[in-house]
Amino acid sequence: MAIRRSTTAEQGLPSAVQLRLAPTLAPQPGLQERKFGHRARLALTPAQIRLIDEQAHAARALWNLLHDWWTMLAKHQRSLAAADAAIRQARKEIEWLAVLPAQAAQAVLKTYYQAWKNCWEGRAHPPTFKARFHTVMSVDIPQGRDLQITRVHRRWGMVTIPKVGRVRFRWTKDLPAGAKADAGNRITGARLVKDALGWHVAFRVQTLHPMPEPHQGPQVGIDAGVSVPLALSDGNHHTHEQWRSTCDKSNAWLTGREQATLLALERRAAHRKSLRKQGERTSHRLRATYDRIASLRARAKRRAIDWQHQTTTEIARTYGVIVVEDLAITNMVTSAKGTVEAPGKNVAQKSGLNRSINQEAWGRTVTMLTYKAARYGGVLHKVPAPGTSQRCSACGFTIPGSRQSQAVFACKNPGCGWRGNADHNAARNILHLYRMGLALVPAAGRAVVRRARRVKPATAR
Ligand SMILES: [Zn+2]
């Protein structure tokens, strides 16, 4: 920014033009705005849990009413203002809907409208009804000043939840609250989310930081490997061996004992379900079994995300330029099966649950690397993917059969004969493509962030 301003001054432009050219994005030169979410666990009494549960059910019911109303109307009658009026009317007339604070009801409308916008702009399918047992329970608190966050102990903070009151939460991060809050550093809102561990609060945090110095570290190519989770082009690997008690299983993040428990619970649930007559309600015992399965899976996911955070932070600290494959993740999942006329390739490998979990994990890794690279002054580049796992990284030839197995690559070119780890080979190819100038999208560290279509639906804020 400072550079751009000095060049206009050198060209001798009138001061009015200079003023117009001055960027208005950052509040102060040399400062970078950072927006992120922070999740904290809430300590609630059973009565408070019931209150928030009721709010979440009301929010879900409001979504369903809204969806019913919206899809029933003629197209020219649909508008945000009409929806807003309908919600106000419904809150007056339907008693149980009033347990939801007015602000949270507005947030439901905002999210619903954003869902349609995502659909119109080709990022997502149209919104649907939300089923009671398949929906993540959540309530939005859109205004940060309602929260009144204070720190009461080294490990505990207090937050106000509308219509519930003051609630304690685990203080695990230095939040810009109370005396520490100002125009640049503040909490802009929150969302209550229920998962297998109970209710959490997810704060929307906005902070200002000094712009990082450009990262002088080396360049690196990264491949999401099959035999190793993350293979780097300089030969380093990032694995999570301590959890790999049995390889290539979706629950590889659990210990052997936990896996055995999970299997037993899944068997018990399947058995109970098989004995259930048609139309009979799910028993309390079966629901308790489902809850235990969900909590074990949530534990595995937390371990996976923790590992990803540690690994991506280390990579972003070490390397200045990070190059990854530009994978069209959603396309890969949907196209695996193909049609009758044109059956998809590798259906067996792709259709597995594992595969989709791995892809979800890879997408999350790239997201983390993107913002962490920007934080440490590095840059993340994406290069076109085809052929990186088949080509030899030493001689550049693609000869069928060079990739001997999932793990071993042995070049069939008689003049080369390079042999090594297949994932490592792919990572070297990815870095090579970047050095050839084939980078597609500068995903971080530049002024303009272009997002590929059909990647991730935007969420309403
Ligand atoms: Zn070769």
Helix content: 25-40%
Count of helical regions = 11
Radius of gyration: 26 Å
Secondary structure category:
alpha+beta
Strand content: 15-25%
Bound molecules: zinc ion
H/E element sequence: HHEHHHEEEEEEEEEHHEHHHEEEHE
Write up this protein:
With 461 residues, the protein is an alpha+beta fold. 39% of the residues lie in helices and 18% in strands. The chain contains eleven helices and 15 strands. The strands form three sheets. A seven-stranded antiparallel sheet has the order 2-6-7-1-5-4-3. The protein has a six-stranded mixed sheet with strand order 10-9-8-11-12-15, sandwiched between helices. Strands 13-14 form a two-stranded antiparallel sheet. Helix 4 runs antiparallel to helix 5 and helix 7 crosses helix 10. It starts with a helix and ends in a 19-residue tail after the last strand. The N terminus is likely disordered. It binds zinc ion.
Record keyword descriptors for this entry.
single chain; 461 residues; alpha+beta; 11 helices; 39% helix; disordered N terminus; binds zinc ion
Compose a concise summary of this entry.
The chain is of the alpha+beta class and 461 residues long.
Set down the secondary structure blueprint.
Elements: H1 2-10, H2 15-21, E1 31-43, H3 46-72, H4 80-93, H5 102-120, E2 138-141, E3 150-151, E4 156-161, E5 165-170, E6 186-195, E7 198-210, E8 219-224, E9 230-232, E10 237-238, H6 256-275, H7 284-318, E11 321-326, H8 329-335, H9 347-351, H10 353-375, E12 379-384, E13 408-410, E14 419-421, H11 422-435, E15 441-442
Parallel strand pairs: 8-11, 11-12
Antiparallel strand pairs: 1-5, 1-7, 2-6, 3-4, 4-5, 6-7, 8-9, 9-10, 12-15, 13-14
